[in-house]
Design a protein that fits this description.
The protein has 118 residues and is mainly α. The chain has 2 helices and 4 strands, in the order ββββαα. Helix content is 61%, strand content 7%. The structure holds zinc ion (ZN) (2 copies).
Length: 118
């Protein structure tokens, strides 16, 4: 659907301002960021400002996301190290642990082994 230009009411146009969506003709077009077409410098400036604010926001979001990922990753590493140390400690201490503690676990392991063999 075509409309007439904001300033030249005798000219039909399909172009609309990227900010305020008012119809404008080729002659009235003001090029803004990303080759978008605007009706005025004011609209172009507004779009520029809001796009700057937007990229600012996404950059901050990305930084927060990266920080959260790094924190989650280091927590995972610490947990893994803890499990490895615990595993080795348990493995080294196993023969010295009282039989009433190791017995049930070993019989449980035997059961698992038998299950796998079946
Ligand atoms: Zn406009
Ligand atoms: Zn015009």
């Amino acid at each position: 659907m075509s409309s007439v230009c904001l300033r030249h009411t005798d000219r039909e146009t399909d172009i609309r301002c990227a900010a305020c969506l008012r119809p404008i003709c080729e002659e009235c077009v003001v090029l803004g960021p990303g080759n978008s077409r605007f009706c005025s410098q004011e609209c172009a400036d507004n779009a520029q400002k809001s796009s700057e604010r937007f990229s600012d926001m996404t950059r901050r979001d990305e930084e927060a996301l990266h920080a959260a990922r790094r924190a989650a990753f280091s927590r995972l590493v610490i947990l893994l190290l803890f499990l490895i140390v615990l595993g080795f400690g348990l493995y080294a201490a196993w023969p010295h642990l009282p039989a009433n503690l190791t017995g049930p676990v070993e019989s449980w392991f035997d059961q698992v082994r038998n299950l796998k063999l079946d």
